[in-house]
Amino acid sequence: MAIKIYTKTGDDGTTGLFGGGRLPKDHLRIEAYGTVDELNAQLGWVVDLLAQEQIGHHLDIVQNELFVVGSMLATKPGKNIGIDTIDEASVHQLELWMDELDDQLPTLKNFILPGGHPAISASHLARCICRRAERRVVALSHTDEVDHLIIRYLNRLSDYLFILSRFVAHRLEIPERVWKPR
């Protein structure tokens, strides 16, 4: 028997958490993991726009880890249901990738404006969504239990996405759009 996508249980404006319990769909926890889901969709678009195999592999890993982050956020606080979690190795991997990409880039001397190519713009948009997800998770952490590694992971991921946008511009030989204050 096929699993139906619709359950009708959310028709009352609530959604279920892993481990039990329901929350209003506008609850900060739902907003946090919904924004992580939005980020994951944006990264899918970035993958579609990029031809670099190395970066595609990075983003495949990140997209899978974002599902883990979303699952962690969608789990009722204090409930251990045996799901994978983000760990220090995930944060460290992002740092290693940033160092690898950054070593191939010219020194950053100015603020960079998004744009120049759809893949560059999509990477910058992913960075912005990642920052919003981080803000939502931080806000949630003020009122509810949140694994602090999620915040660290999202913070590092947004930095990675900034470097990724610069790396894509470099590989495509598209000049970076430098911010010129008035």
Point out poorly predicted stretches.
none
State the helicity in percent bands: 55-70%
Written as H for each helix and E for each strand, in order along the chain, the element string is EEHHHEHHE
Largest sheet: 2 strands, antiparallel
> Could you say which structural class the secondary elements and strand pairing correspond to?
mainly alpha
Structure characterization notes:
- With 182 residues, the chain is mainly α.
- The protein has one domain: Hypothetical Protein Ta1238, Chain: A (Up-down Bundle), CATH 1.20.1200.
- The chain is built from five helices and four strands.
- The strands form two sheets. The protein has a two-stranded antiparallel ribbon with strand order 1-2. The protein has a two-stranded antiparallel sheet with strand order 3-4.
- The chain is elongated and about 50 Å long.
Which terms summarize this structure?
two-stranded antiparallel sheet, Hypothetical Protein Ta1238, Chain: A, 182 residues, mainly alpha, two-stranded antiparallel ribbon, 4 strands
Topology, element by element:
Layout: E1 14-16, E2 22-24, H1 28-49, H2 53-73, H3 88-102, E3 112-113, H4 118-141, H5 148-171, E4 177-178
Antiparallel strand pairs: 1-2, 3-4
Helix pairs in contact: 1-2, 1-4, 3-5, 4-5
